[in-house]
Amino acid sequence: MRIAIISAPAQRKGIPDCVKGLAKGMESMGHRVDVMDAWTEDGFRLPGYEYIVTVAEQVSLFGGRMPEALPKILSAGSGLVGKKGAAFLRKTGPFTGKAMANLMRAMEHEGIVVNWSDIILGVPHAETLGKRIGA
With 0-12 CB in 10 A as exposed, 13-18 as middle and 19+ as buried, what is 57? Predict the structure, then answer.
């Protein structure tokens, strides 16, 4: 399966290690995985993937706001209606439930059917979650 992982860290600091671990787990199951940085990519390649995975981090400790780059990359990829996807959130503080709801709402706003969501606790946990995709 062709999988796109959209990495949306709170600040422009590159791809976090947990996203690399998630991709490694998916690749070990035989999937073709491409990692996209929400801050630098435009999202026009997204319709070519069968499964869209978003790994985000809440911007502030309180409130559960998502990075401003996330809606931009999702809205640029027209033709996402009906695509299956997963929403992952990096554990960064309290209020992760509200942040997860905001992440899923942003994905579903563009028509992605979120059939799996989870909170990533660390790199080994991310790799384990990646092995469960498509299993």
Answer: buried
Report the C-alpha gap between 43 and 6 in whole angstroms: 9
Q: Where are the domains of the chain?
A: 2-131
Tens-digit pLDDT profile for residues 95-128: 788 899 999 999 999 999 999 999 999 999 999 9
Strand runs (DSSP E) across the chain, as ranges?
A: 2-8, 32-37, 51-56, 84-90, 113-120
Helix axes 17-28, 123-131, angle to 10 degrees: 30
In single-letter form, the type of residue at position 30 comes to: G
* pTM exceeds 0.90: yes
Which CATH number does 2-131 carry? 3.40.50.360
